[in-house]
Amino acid sequence: MKALVFDKLLRYEGEHPDPKPAAGEVLVRVRMAGICATDLEIIKGYMKFRGIPGHEFVGEVVSGSSKWKGKRVVGEINCVCGACDMCRGGLASHCRQRTVVGISGRDGAMAEYVVLPEQNLHEVPEVIPDEQAVFVEPLAAAMQVLKQCPIEPRMNVSVVGSGRLGLLAAQVLQSVRCRVEVVGRNPQTLAFCERHGIQTVDVKQLVPRGDRDVVVECTGEPQGLNLAMQMVRPRGVIVLKSTYAGGTSVDLAPLVIKEVTVMGSRCGPFREAIDLLARQQIDVATMISRTYRLEQGIEAFTAAGDPQNIKVLIRMY
Ligand SMILES: [Zn+2]
Ligand SMILES: [Zn+2]
């Protein structure tokens, strides 16, 4: 099959071996995949991943049980053992034996085919086109903020970072009617927020006042956490969505002095993300800047790293 393969360098392979589903797994013919910040980190060495990247995708089940064959699906990315203390305790996404599609120990979806455990699948309703279905995974991750940190109307919430995840988080927060503002530096993505009635602040103009109830950190850079610590109010909450590849040295004293709660936040609820997209409550369509064919995958990655583009997609056929 055709695939993008990362092994110290990202390359396109016209003839990569087809994956073989194990017991309980299905073969999915990938239709589209999205490139996110994690993928850009992976090709710089994040998680020491080797293999086919790609964890945001939509495809069609082509083998496995009759329950799934022929269905258009998206897939949760944590592949779990079902037996460890985390799995038995209801925290399967933290399975101690897990592999993660296109991120850790398992090939991803930037290829013609990907295999996935049947239990990871979710059917995509007709009303969500392929271009939007690839956003289910990152939208679920954005919705996880609400799962971990109850947000009430009238709360002052800032999203720091106006990248792909920041724009999704801001829209999710707007849907629960809190007072949300986005702090960023990219005029294009800030304009996207303004078009959706979301307040924006250029980071160069920002004067942190230590008055935000919740700050959602989506910059991908340690300075983002520094800024979040200045913006949050005493006893407020910082939700950290960024993973800083290569580590960070940030002075954490403000967290102690202001008695701030910091929450790490990762994957989220697929079913709810699908519902939100089906109800057309989140604009993902105008976040798409470019779509490339799988054969142009290297070009697609370059484009995804260009701040001129918001979301870059790869079409398999
Ligand atoms: Zn992602
Ligand atoms: Zn487990």
Features:
alpha/beta, Quinone Oxidoreductase, Chain A, domain 1, Rossmann fold, 2 domains, six-stranded parallel sheet, 10 helices, 28% strand, binds zinc ion
Provide a descriptive summary of the structure in words.
The two termini are 12 Å apart. Helix 4 crosses helix 5 and helix 4 crosses helix 9. The protein folds into two domains: 3-135 and 284-315, Medium-chain alcohol dehydrogenases, catalytic domain (Quinone Oxidoreductase, Chain A, domain 1), CATH 3.90.180; 142-264, Rossmann fold (3-Layer(aba) Sandwich). The strands form four sheets. Strands 3, 4, 5, 8, 9, 16 and 17 form a seven-stranded mixed β-sheet that branches. A six-stranded parallel β-sheet has the order 12-11-10-13-14-15, with helices on both faces. It has ten helices and 17 strands. Strand 1 (3-7) and strand 2 (9-13) form a beta hairpin. It is 25% helix and 28% strand. It has 317 residues and is α/β, with parallel strands linked by helices.
